[in-house]
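Annex B, item 7. Sequence and structure tokens for protein A, then protein B.
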Amino acid sequence: MNLRLVCTDFDGTLLPAGEEDDRSICPEFFSRLQQLKKRSGVVWVINTGRPWESLRSELERQRLPYWPDWVVLGEREVYRIEGRLPAPHRAWNQRCSELHRELFAATTSFWEGMRRFLQHETRAVYGQAEWSPLEILAADAGEADRIHKKILDWIAPFPDLSVQRNFAGFRFSHREIHKGSALQAVQEEIGLDAAVTLAAGDHHNDLPMLDRRYAAFLTCPVNAIPEVKDRVRGQGGFLASRPASAGIAEALSRFEACEA
């Protein structure tokens, strides 16, 4: 089997977490990926929670040797990159929009209750956003854990509603729309499948795509949270010994060695 698709999260998986100006994606990642592109035409997908302008700005700041072939934005919308501009996967993005419009309209009581809780019992910053009636940023990791537990308790009566967490941030979506199903939409569009796919992530919102339904080869950097490491380890994936993009370069190198 030849690897044909590499799907990576962005923040924490490629780009080191933190606010330092000198954060960068290591050159080794690109050299490993380039070898795979030359050998088998590997397609690269960045699967992120960022909106386009935020991702574009960071890609430009990084001065990457090349950009991804596809991006998933907001953990749901799918775009092909053409001339460094995003061209939408219209059928998939329209389905996402319709599912979320119907779901969010049918769960009014949940949003009202969550806003009261956030206002009176937390120090979190929250409000309506592009992809979710409520996006939340907890004040610290401990508060994020407490908010996460409350969300999981209150979300139970709404089986189609799910929460995506990344560090101290939370966003809501339809249970059928997540990084894994968005990756599958890319696969179907370009005629590939899980058997030739690698998926790499580091945090809660990456868990849906770190599944053998979507990728035969799973990996995470050493800075991944315990839940991600457990998911990858439990499915026979590779836990890198280095952080962020250096760890993903390590995983690509291991894959190449297995294929040799």
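Protein B:
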Amino acid sequence: MVVAGIDVGSLTAEVVLLEEGKILHYVIIPTGANSKTAADKAMDTALEAAGLTRSDLRYIVATGYGRVSIDFADKRITEITCHGRGAHYLNPAVRTVIDIGGQDSKVISLSDKGKVLDFSMNDKCAAGTGRFLEVMAQALEVELDGLAGLSNRAQDTVSISSMCTVFAESEVVSLIARGLPRENIARGLHQAIADRTAGMVHRIGLEEAVMITGGVAKNGAVVGALNEKLKTKIIVPDEPQIAGALGAALLAEDEIV
């Protein structure tokens, strides 16, 4: 009995294939310009790798901002519910989930059963998200995956006054022009993200254990800054980007039991 969860976000699309509660296979691909095309490609890639076809799937749950475009899904469920369920599966001790994706961020409070108790979400702008980091990396003339390393070499922290992506980019360009070290600027950017995210956490109340999911969880400088700000050790899953799709797959299993 194989089910699938698919999470189509602004930057990436993920599919998780689940068989009797165990992850059979997963894929992560760029979303690109068309959510529907990305969903089809991600699903077909996952199925091919697992030696399956769509007819082998008993149920499909879609989530993410692009879920409305996934016409082959049996059900669509919000990413809040799916991320909570996925995080609980990965570590049942987790009570607070921080998810920082491509263009939004959210903090979710969970019960000991993995049910969503409360959440705080920023989906009005790209402040502190993966897209924010992409733009800042370009301004600093470094690859996105090199941003954390740049920050870790900082001798000091340059305060960043704006979290708006457009204004922050202008601020970074100005700071570089003034001759301030790029390393210190990078640390300031990561600290600003941690400050903003911590504010969301405190709005719903911090309860340990804390897990971070989403693509930004792969940035060690962001995780480190959050550890310091929240005064806790944040859990980073082996593959933090699949939490939403995993939760969707688990909810798909619920539909057929």
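Comment on protein B: The chain has eight helices and nine strands.
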